[in-house]
Every structure is written in C-alpha cells, then in structure tokens.
Amino acid sequence: MGEAVLTTRRQADGAIVIEVRGSLDAATVDLLRETLVGTLQRERPVVLVVDLTFVVFMDSVGIGTLVSGYNSAREVGTRFVLRNPSEFVHRQLRVTGLAEMFGLPPSPSSTQTFTP
C-alpha cells in the first residue's frame, strides 16, 4: 500500500485547493476523506479543487473517496473540481464512467485542467 501527502491552501479567488501526492488506496484515503469533508464543513468554499497532478496510483477505494467528496460538495453548494489528473488517474475515471461526472475531457491530452 502506498503513501499520500496532502497540502491545503486557499487561492486569491477564495477557492480551496487540496493537492494530493502519492497513492490513493485503502491505506491513504481516510486522510483525504477527512480533509475533504472537514474542509467543506468548516470553510464552505464556493470552489473546492482537488489537484491530482502528482497522484501515481489510485484504486477503487480512491475513486470512491473522490465520488464521496463530489457528493459532499454538492450537498453544501460547493463546486468540486478535479485538476490535472495524471494519465493513469484519468484512465481510471474514464474506465469507470466517472470522467464525465467530474467534467473531465475524453482524454487527458485534450486539456489538463477543467474549469466549468
């Protein structure tokens, strides 16, 4: 099982960015889930960005955590954005049929950042 490091920061426009580095699997998703839910409950940002640039591995538990974050954000009226998913992560989301739900392009080379 892998390791993950999370960094949270607020951008000048008020959006909160959670940068994830490493792997999203059974050993690491609890920290991400707690960070997502805690940030949404405490901060109630207009936009919550999850930056996946440096995620090297993600399994079904990681995907489930992103879906939970997306659903939690919708419940409080926050726009949930995935930024720069690696090719591996993008493929995982595409194969599971979730890329469209997250507003990602059909392939990672189409565009790396989605901002609706």
From TrEMBL:
For this protein, the record's SUPFAM superfamilies field holds: SpoIIaa-like
**Where in the numbering of this chain does the STAS domain appear?**
5-116
InterPro entries for this protein = Anti-sigma_ant, STAS_dom, STAS_dom_sf
Per its UniProt entry, which superkingdom is the organism in?
Answer: Bacteria
Among Pfam families, the record links this protein to: STAS (PF01740)
User: Which family does this protein fall into?
Assistant: Belongs to the anti-sigma-factor antagonist family.
Recorded hits in NCBIfam families, A to Z, give: ant_ant_sig (TIGR00377)
Q: What is this protein called?
A: Anti-sigma factor antagonist
Species assigned in the record: Paractinoplanes globisporus
